[in-house]
Design brief:
Organism: Clostridium grantii DSM 8605
Distance between the termini: 36 Å
Protein name: DUF5659 domain-containing protein
Helix content: 40-55%
Order of helices and strands: EHEEH
Radius of gyration: 12 Å
Shape: globular
Largest sheet: 3 strands, antiparallel
Strand content: 15-25%
Number of strands: 3
């Protein structure tokens, strides 16, 4: 079975994806921590990987 949603634990990454145009659902996980759930699409996965590459190319840590 394929996952229909991707869970993001970092608020800043969730907000960056939201700024680009992806809507998230916010909820508490089993440990009581806030997580952000996005619909898992090809476009979402492409943008997520591009954001991660951008962070790695511009980050000092």
């Amino acid at each position: 079975m394929e996952n229909n949603y991707s869970v993001i634990k970092k608020k800043s990454l969730a907000e960056a994806l939201n700024f680009i145009g992806f809507r998230y659902f916010k909820y508490q996980d089993e440990e009581g921590k806030t997580v952000y759930s996005f619909e898992n699409t090809d476009k979402f996965n492409f943008v997520l990987h591009e954001l991660i590459k951008l962070k790695k190319s511009t980050s000092n840590y």
